[in-house]
């Protein structure tokens, strides 16, 4: 074999190295600059992928934030007022208001207030532990204000309106309703607040069913001036407390010790100003519905005491306090400063309603 190769090289005049180069494929040897270039290209591709992934995550975060803001705005809208007579007719399944027994409209108003708390957009938010509900403290305050008025109205129904006299037996369904509505307002575990309040609504519906059936031995409603006076006395204290708390938003000095002349500045912390404001709005919303039901159920009593105008004036003042606000935040300016003070404006309406309550209770107590 070697002799043939030598002969071939002698014939062609080519050396062994030249022949080997022709027979073997030529393999380029990469230079150092080409290796560095390929490494940089790979790193740039990885960096682009990393930036793209981070941009994608950022967009998802922005979209999620926008979604939470939109949902939070929708859930934070306050429920509208409702027609207490129309709701009672719908519940009873009739069209003639004269067919409703006395006390049915009042009882159904309480049930509908509770149902609104549970089934409004977003449901009951006070006990939620996830966003955006956990960040919506204004709506939680609104719910608590409405709940306060619901509890007071339920208590007076159980202890006064539904009993003919102090020695009479209380209604068994109302005896269950009141404790259910007094269950803690922020329980999300077992039992949940919604579940307990729903039991209260169901008990109230059973009382309403017996009431509208005409079984006076089972359920009754006694619209008397002394009964109404008991309820008005409770509402007076509630409105007086709300008015005082709202007025504290601007701060004022209170003298605790006259002899030593020690004064203290009483002012609502700025982080709680909006909570006080919305709690009052929730209470005013519920009280408007309750007073409209009271005006219907106690119509004979109010006419006999010439108190219809007073009730309507109280309702008007409370409705004015529910006017929509133009600012997304609760402004807390000084009394005669550049900015409005929403709390003081609300306190004015509540104080006027409270004054009307005093006049109304005085009329109820007259012989």
Describe the 3D structure.
Residues 1-14 have low confidence and may be disordered. It is built from 13 helices and two strands. The longest helix has 44 residues, at 32-75. The chain has 367 residues and is an all-alpha fold.
Topology of this structure?
Blueprint: H1 2-12, H2 16-23, H3 32-75, H4 84-92, H5 104-119, H6 137-161, H7 172-181, H8 193-213, H9 225-247, E1 252-257, E2 262-266, H10 273-297, H11 299-304, H12 308-321, H13 342-365
Antiparallel strand pairs: 1-2
Helix pairs in contact: 4-5, 5-6, 5-8, 5-10, 6-7, 6-9, 6-10, 7-8, 9-13, 10-12, 10-13, 12-13
Radius of gyration: 38 Å
The biggest beta sheet is recorded as: 2 strands, antiparallel
Q: Report the end-to-end length measured between terminal Cα atoms.
A: 142 Å
What's the total helix number?
13
- State the helicity in percent bands: 55-70%
Q: What's the average pLDDT?
A: 83
Biggest sheet strand order reads 1-2
- Structural class, by secondary structure, is mainly alpha
The SSE string, one letter per element, is: HHHHHHHHHEEHHHH
- Quaternary structure: single chain
Sheet-strand content, in percent, reads: under 5%
Strand runs, count = 2
TL;DR of this structure?
It is built from 13 helices and 2 strands; from the N terminus they run αααααααααββαααα. The protein is mainly α.
